[in-house]
């Protein structure tokens, strides 16, 4: 089957946006593709961080994956830092990248603008690491949000550049995959901005650790719009966001959801949306806590996933090292790859 790869950075507690916009889609896709799902902890250190929090968030993200339905027996699930080939290939791709194309990355511009005088080099070069994440596994499809399209394009450019430069089919040129529903869940406090686990306003996000009562309270206070009619309209981003959340959870078309609220005001919409979110989040929250109480088993799952990932990654790295002219390491196969 074609290979599909994705991951989440363990920089905070995951949100409803992560669940509906990414992880639920991964669960459905793991039956159709050879899937690799990473906890991308190497990306989490591009800015100053708390080591204890990073470790806890990494475990929690991995537990969230499994609790939401990722099957470690079917898909590869591991920490990025457990596969050293990511960092090795990232250096090769950094050397193949151009200053101009990295400087054009919108996320670098946004994040460096808030970094002060001392901008970490990792903020500038991490798109090359992201490209390594993708190309290392000869990935065919990458579920990608609108904010990551630039990085996928860089991965494609680097794959083509390396293939052309070394006269060999080193890399598969990956394609983007954007799910049709739930790809972009917006903030409850600012429905013109994406729901983010790094949002400074906790009211805007539904965290996967939120209790049922907290979820209901946040949705009740969600920003809606002027007027009282429930429509799926661009001029009503607050109402539209609540409808999109319902659509992502239930699989129902937005127009069908709107029709159920004919003649009703915003109260019933918020109440129903809150209960649907509770029904989606509560089981995952409980299963996550069960996994976190058994770190030994969680470690075992991550170690097994990393072993499977390293086998694939080393095969790719051997081919690359042979193609670019490195002397083979003792005990590797890449001396014969070129």
What are the main properties of this structure?
5 strands; three-stranded parallel sheet; 338 residues; mainly alpha; 12 helices
Can you put this structure into words, describing what you see?
With 338 residues, the protein is mainly alpha-helical. It contains twelve helices and five strands. It has a three-stranded parallel sheet. Strands 4-5 form a two-stranded parallel sheet. Helix 2 (51-68) crosses helix 11, helix 3 (85-96) packs parallel to helix 12 and helix 9 (237-250) crosses helix 11 (266-292). The longest helix is centred in the C-terminal third of the chain and has 30 residues, at 295-324. The radius of gyration is 21 Å and the shape is globular. It starts with a strand and ends in a 14-residue tail after the last helix. The model has no long low-confidence stretch (mean pLDDT 91).
């Amino acid at each position: 089957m074609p290979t599909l790869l994705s991951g989440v950075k363990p920089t905070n507690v995951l949100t409803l946006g992560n669940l509906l916009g990414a992880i639920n889609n991964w669960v459905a896709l793991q039956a159709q593709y050879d899937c690799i799902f990473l906890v991308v902890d190497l990306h989490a250190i591009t800015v100053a961080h708390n080591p204890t929090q990073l470790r806890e968030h990494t475990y929690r993200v991995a537990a969230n994956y499994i609790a939401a339905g990722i099957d470690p027996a079917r898909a590869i699930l591991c920490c990025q830092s457990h596969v050293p080939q990511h960092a090795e290939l990232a250096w090769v791709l950094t050397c193949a990248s151009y200053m101009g194309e990295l400087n054009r990355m919108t996320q670098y511009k946004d994040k460096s603008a808030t970094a002060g005088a001392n901008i970490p080099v990792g903020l500038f070069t991490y798109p090359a690491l992201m490209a390594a994440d993708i190309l290392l596994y000869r990935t065919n499809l990458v579920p990608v949000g609108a904010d990551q399209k630039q990085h996928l394009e860089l991965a494609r450019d680097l794959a083509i550049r390396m293939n052309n430069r070394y006269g060999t089919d080193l890399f598969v040129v990956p394609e983007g995959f954007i799910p049709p529903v739930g790809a972009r869940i917006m903030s409850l406090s600012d429905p013109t901005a994406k729901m983010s686990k790094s949002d400074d306003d906790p009211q805007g996000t539904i965290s996967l650790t939120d209790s049922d009562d907290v979820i209901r309270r946040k949705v009740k206070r969600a920003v809606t719009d002027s007027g009282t009619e429930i429509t799926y309209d661009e001029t009503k981003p607050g109402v539209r966001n609540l409808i999109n959340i319902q659509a992502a959870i239930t699989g129902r078309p937005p127009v069908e959801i709107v029709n159920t609220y004919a003649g009703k005001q915003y109260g019933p919409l918020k109440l129903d949306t809150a209960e649907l979110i509770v029904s989606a989040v509560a089981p995952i929250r409980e299963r996550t806590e069960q996994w976190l109480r058994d770190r030994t088993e969680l470690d075992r799952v991550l170690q097994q996933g990393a072993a499977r990932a390293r086998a694939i990654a080393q095969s790719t790295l051997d081919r690359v090292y042979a193609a670019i002219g490195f002397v083979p390491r003792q005990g590797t196969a890449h001396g014969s790859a070129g």
